[in-house]
Amino acid sequence: MSAIPSMSSPEVAEQVRALTDRLTPTAARLHYLADLLKPMLAVGEPDDRNAFYAAGRFIGSTPAFARTVVAAIVRHGSAEAWLKFRRRPPAMPVLNLPPIAPNLVGFVYFANPVTAPDVVRIGLSANLERRLRDLQVETGEEHRVARWFVGTTVDEAVAQFALAGRRISGKWFTTSDTGQIPGFLPIGLRAMRDMLGEERAA
Questions:
Q1: Residues paired with residue 120 on neighbouring β-strands, in sequence order
Q2: Which terminus, N or C, of the chain has the lesser number of Cβ atoms within 10 Å?
Q3: Residue 106's beta-bridge partner residues?
Q4: pLDDT digits (tens, 9 = 90+) for 103-121
Q5: Would the pLDDT of 95 be above 70?
């Protein structure tokens, strides 16, 4: 089993800092949400509702407003264009996003029971070692981290959406690919599906 990554390691701390810095500006955070969630605008299923719930937490709004924001950005072509549109007379309130809460950034992990390598749990945690211990207590099985990347609660929800066709129950899915992928910044739903081996069209 590969070493379990830790938030205290300098490499991971730098990835968390880079991701947080990148997504702190309002326009950058809105672009990030629009890139990931655009394919879900017309889905209307529990999987996409989970993603917009995560998006709402990420911008300090309701899930419905998060969906409205993503749809508006898609219509206007960019977050900057939509924010400029909001400033037209009569101007709407300035959209100042709150700081990113630390608990919304962590390891998006893919954990396998050692006795069932074709089953994976997708979740988010800031402490993978403790999360693996908790999974063992919950299931009675030892788990290993098969894949991980530094991301947000939105990445977690999108990864689960990408594998919705393989859902067993809750956050558990079937999978045939458990190779580790080191930390990276958001890549979009289609690329995530390609990475995870999901063949269902976006």
A1: 173
A2: N
A3: 151
A4: 999 999 989 899 988 888 9
A5: yes
